[in-house]
User: Which sequence fits this backbone?
């Protein structure tokens, strides 16, 4: 009797931070997926110590997915195209990148209402105010974690344009209003039934 075993697929978890299973998106929680953790901070004990602007330790076309949660905004604006091109480079032809980060358009609406330092939701790290979404989690930065500072930001339109410019063939960006986040799914090859952007 031949048993079917799940095909192992690899997700490169960039900017992974301290290892906690819940930090991996639920899309990757099946036995089909194997997580490879990458972070610039060796203190979090990643599998690979590297910046998301230099993934040279990861071969071209070698991973099935890239999962990036709240780290692209930590780059300077001029570094963003480099990082997104690196995400694209390491993905297999049928691969995709799943990215989430703050929605500056939604945050700006709160700032316009003069709620800059008011907590608008509670995260695992504590209360989050628009000031944290704009410039980085103040409590972590105050403890000396300079990696948590934000240096750029995105709207749905600018994130989509940046991913297409990085070489992704199809991109879908959605807004998560309760958490003031953007979510982008960027494909190397457009999924079946998806029109290629003009």
Assistant:
């Amino acid at each position: 009797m031949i048993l079917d075993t799940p095909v192992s697929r690899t997700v490169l978890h960039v900017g992974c931070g301290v290892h906690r299973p819940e930090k991996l998106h639920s899309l990757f929680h099946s036995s089909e997926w194997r997580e490879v953790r990458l972070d610039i901070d060796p203190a979090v004990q990643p599998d690979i110590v590297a910046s998301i602007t230099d993934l040279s330790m990861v071969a071209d076309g070698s991973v099935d997915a890239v999962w990036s949660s709240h780290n692209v905004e930590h780059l300077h604006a001029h570094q963003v195209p480099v990082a997104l091109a690196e995400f694209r480079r390491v993905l297999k032809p049928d691969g995709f990148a799943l990215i989430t980060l703050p929605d500056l358009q939604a945050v700006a609406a709160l700032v316009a209402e003069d709620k800059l330092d008011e907590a608008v939701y509670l995260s695992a790290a504590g209360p989050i105010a628009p000031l944290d979404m704009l410039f980085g989690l103040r409590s972590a930065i105050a403890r000396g974690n300079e990696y948590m500072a934000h240096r750029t930001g995105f709207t749905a339109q600018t994130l989509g344009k940046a991913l297409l410019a990085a070489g992704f063939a199809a991109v879908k960006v959605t807004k998560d209003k309760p958490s003031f986040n953007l979510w982008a799914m960027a494909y190397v090859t457009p999924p079946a039934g998806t029109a290629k952007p003009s």
